[in-house]
Design goal:
By secondary structure, this protein is mainly β. The protein contains 2 helices and 18 strands. A hairpin with a 5-residue loop joins strand 12 and strand 13. The protein is globular, with a radius of gyration of 17 Å. The chain starts with a strand and ends with a strand.
Length: about 210
């Protein structure tokens, strides 16, 4: 049974109320995930709304994206495979698309999941994940991309192109690709999941925090 952690952190008004009361909120710091199989983008339909969460497959636990920091340590550095969209640096920080490689490096095996969505709900039995925006250390960045082992881009944060911002996935599926970061820093990646249910467009948008580099 999956464990939901939505009520185990204090954010927003609740945190403000504790601060006003003079209580120590340090015990409610965000969870940091550093390794193992984690579906970063994981959508769920509750019958009325879409939701996005982070699913820690290792512990069968779900987190609100705002309550999680994804860590990409220097152990994730690999030689730049030479795809033009990865820039000219000699190395990139990579979360690889195979679990064996991720486990060997001790880094996250990052997934894109629709496995909790069932057939017959969304038009075409599919939903789309869109990269809405990406920043590094507070400024727009072109240093993030997601691509397959053969160099086919799924996502690219480069604002010079409108391509590689949205990708459609069949429901009930589990997908993995390489998540690449060209520079160290703190990334804020905003994604939206969207589908049509009963003729109505439904969506959910969340921002994910990724800390790259030791």
């Amino acid at each position: 049974m999956r464990t939901h952690r939505r009520l185990l952190t204090v954010t927003g008004l609740a945190a403000a109320a504790l601060a006003t009361a003079g209580l120590n909120t340090s015990a409610f710091a965000a969870t940091t995930l550093t390794s193992g199989h984690v579906d970063v983008l994981d959508a769920e339909w509750d019958g009325a709304e879409l939701h996005l969460h982070v699913h820690d497959e290792e512990n069968d636990t779900e987190y609100e994206p705002a309550d999680v920091t994804l860590s990409v340590p220097d152990a994730a550095k690999v030689a730049n495979p030479g795809y033009g969209f990865l820039g000219s640096g000699s190395q990139v920080w990579l979360l690889p698309d195979t679990e064996a490689e991720a486990d060997a490096a001790g880094v996250l095996f990052a997934g894109v999941s629709t496995e909790h969505l069932t057939t017959g709900v969304f038009a075409g039995d599919s939903v789309a994940y869109r990269l809405v925006s990406a920043t590094r250390d507070g400024a727009a960045t072109d240093d993030f991309s997601v691509y397959t082992g053969s160099g086919v881009r799924w996502y690219d944060s480069d604002t010079a192109t409108g391509s590689y911002k949205s990708r459609t996935f069949a429901v009930g599926a589990h997908n993995h690709a390489n998540w690449a970061f060209e520079e160290a820093g703190t990334y804020r990646l905003t994604f939206r999941v969207q589908g049509t249910a009963g003729g109505v467009t439904e969506s959910a948008t969340e921002t994910y925090t990724v800390v790259v580099g030791s």
